[in-house]
Design a protein that fits this description.
Chain lengths: 335, 280
């Protein structure tokens, strides 16, 4: 028996959608609260998306599975937080951009270039090395406390949709700012990739290294550019997250969530990274808030924690039904 | 633009006022000397030397696995030979780098299509202009004056190439959706966009039917004719090779076994043996 490939994908999507609206449908949850949870999930999702985005950019351009993306987010956030103690936040962000570009040069020079013709495992190990280096080095120069990034956005939440739901919905202003920033960043990247010669070169390299080099695109420069772009994406992620919860080591753990995100979205897909991040952000938050309590009650469990494994289970299911991810191209190995 | 089928071309191939071959062909522009290339014990090229003269059409032939593609890859720096030198326009290299080769005026196409799958025909060919773009990233992103004018100027060149290759109808089509023969044309178009002095073509007519081959021959000869572009091509179809080349280099098991005009090569004993002994 041959089931068409879209059937399990559609079934899984339907299940997710059902899970999403179930709390509303049962009528036990106030719509306003449901929307708040949804927004909370989306916000986490934005961060996952940004980490996954940096990941996908580097993977597309250099085929390198960059474990260090999470560490880059932490490093960037630390840089902004500590620099901001001595200068205005905007200047600190510019400083962080300079630092991340310098890091891109160093990575290309010291890691990628010497290892370019080694196999993928060597490069993977190298990015693991970069991860530990950045985490340790970051602590050495920036310190290991929890630092604040004050973006000057008022703390008290805003009440919106008051006329739609009873009691309205409470939204944090920094969440709104974060969402707008993330959208602007993605828009700017899209313009960069579509309109500039460098963007075209990056897309060319992503599609075919040899052909790209043969039309005069120097790979080493492209790597510096793409690691710099990933660095800037890391800054945005780090500032959003750090501004909300403070800059601390746990930020770098977000990278562990980027893996299921890119499995879901497809390793080489920018839209996949964004959509995948949002799905996992919303999914795990919804599961934690609405699915965990009944499960705990029914099976007499010790606690929730769904948030921690939801992404991985979802990614595993996707690996089973659609290994190339939502937006990925199916790889057909040539014989 | 000339549109005669290849068979109708006179032997000299010049359409209007054909200059005789000996005045058309210039001095040596590219030479490889004593090139040897190994792949972990497999010897792909052994001590091969030959010259390429300005404006000529040089064919490299030989049985499968003879080292023809490897030779092109060494010339444009995709592979680095363990021994030997490459001399191009009075500069000598032990190893070429692909982007340097491109910057110096060597463009190429690939035996197995290496187009940018995610892009349209237009964008694929446009990438060939990338190297020549001078305005800054920000100016390009915002499409301000100079950047806009530069983009338009390059776009014009690209449109010209698209017309020349007769693929106007597919300008916006993602290359992956095109028939194989058309993809081969786009590959050529991307190389032409570099306005190269030397064009390396790795089996530009492989897998084509007779009609498509005639078209491709016509494009190659027109480029050679109109822009004086030096052509180095690998081809298995002997009819085509004898028809369009000024000179032929023959490789077999990584060694050079023949080098001369089509007439000379046709009568070369070693070449005949290599071909009779080989299957294609
Ligand atoms: N990247 C590579 N790694 C290992 N071996 C290679 C590589 N490229 C070529 N070879 C080997 O070098 C030899 C020459 O190959 P090459 O592709 O140059 O032959 P060719 O003359 O172009 O053949 P064809 O007519 O089939 O295209 C072959 O034995 C091939 O297996
Ligand atoms: Mg070949």
């Amino acid at each position: 028996m041959n089931i068409p490939r879209y059937v399990p994908v559609a079934a899984l999507s339907a299940l997710l959608a059902a899970g999403l609206i179930a709390p509303l449908a049962t009528g036990e949850t106030a719509p306003g609260f449901w929307v708040e949870v949804l927004i909370g999930g989306l916000m986490t999702g934005v961060l996952y998306s940004l980490v996954a985005l940096g990941f996908v950019l580097i993977f597309k351009a250099s085929g390198v599975f960059n474990f260090a993306q999470g560490a880059m987010v932490l490093f960037a956030a630390l840089a902004v937080a500590r620099l901001a103690e001595r200068m205005p936040v905007w200047a600190a962000v510019i400083g962080a951009v300079v630092i991340m570009i310098a890091l891109a040069f160093a990575v290309e020079r010291l890691v990628l270039r010497p290892l370019v013709n080694q196999d993928a495992v060597a490069l993977l190990m190298a990015t693991l090395g970069i991860t530990f280096f950045l985490n340790g080095f970051g602590q050495s120069i920036w310190g290991s406390d929890i630092y604040e990034i004050n973006l000057g956005i008022p703390r008290e939440p805003m009440m919106v949709l008051g006329n739609v739901f009873e009691g309205g919905v409470l939204v944090n202003r920094d969440d709104i700012a974060a969402a707008i920033t993330a959208v602007l960043l993605v828009g700017a990247l899209a313009v960069f990739f579509r309109r500039t010669a460098t963007g075209r070169a990056l897309r060319a390299v992503a599609d075919d290294h040899q052909a790209a080099q043969s039309i005069g695109i120097p790979l080493d420069r492209i790597w510096v550019i793409v690691w710099s772009v990933a660095g800037v994406v890391a800054i945005v992620g780090g500032v959003i997250w750090g501004g909300k919860l403070g800059v601390q080591f746990s930020i770098s753990q977000v990278a562990l969530k980027a893996l299921p995100v890119v499995i879901l979205g497809g390793f080489e897909s920018v839209p996949g990274a964004i959509v995948g991040g949002l799905i996992i952000g919303v999914g795990e938050k919804m599961a934690e808030v609405f699915l965990a309590p009944p499960l705990i009650k029914a099976f007499d469990l010790a606690g929730g924690g769904i948030e921690n494994w939801f992404a991985y289970v979802l990614a595993l299911l996707f690996l089973l039904v659609r290994p190339e991810g939502l937006f990925g191209e199916r790889r057909i190995d040539r014989v | 633009m000339a549109s005669l089928p290849v068979q109708a071309l006179p032997a000299s191939k010049r359409l209007d006022e054909p200059p005789p071959a000996h005045t058309r062909i210039g001095p040596v522009i590219l030479s490889v000397a004593n090139i040897s290339l190994d792949f972990g014990g497999v010897r792909a090229i052994s001590d091969v030397s030959f010259d390429v003269r300005e404006h000529e059409v040089l064919a490299i032939i030989g049985p499968n696995g003879a080292g023809k593609s490897s030779m092109l890859n060494v010339i444009n720096g995709v592979y680095h030979a363990q021994q030997g030198r490459i001399r191009f326009k009075d500069r000598e290299f032990a190893a070429m780098q692909p982007h340097r080769a491109a910057a110096m005026g060597i463009a190429r196409t690939f035996q197995n299509l290496a187009l940018f799958k995610g892009m349209s025909v237009l964008d694929n060919i446009m990438t060939g202009r990338n190297m020549k773009m001078r305005t800054g990233i920000l100016a390009q992103a915002l499409r301000v004056g100079p950047a806009e004018r530069e983009e338009m100027r390059h776009r014009e060149v690209v449109e010209h190439i698209i017309d020349f290759l007769e693929i106007q109808a597919y300008r916006k089509t993602p290359v992956g959706r095109l028939a194989y023969g058309l993809q081969k044309r786009v590959d050529l178009g991307r190389a032409l966009a570099l306005e190269p002095e030397v064009l390396l073509l790795d089996e530009p007519m492989a897998g084509m039917n007779v009609e498509e081959k005639q078209d491709m021959c016509r494009f190659i000869l027109d480029v050679n004719e109109q822009y004086g572009t030096t052509i180095v091509l690998i081809e298995h179809d002997m009819g085509v090779v004898m028809d369009i080349s000024d000179r032929i280099v023959v490789l077999d098991y990584g060694r050079k076994i023949g080098d001369g005009t089509p007439g000379e090569v046709r009568g070369n004993r070693a070449v005949i043996d290599a071909y009779l002994g080989a299957t294609h």
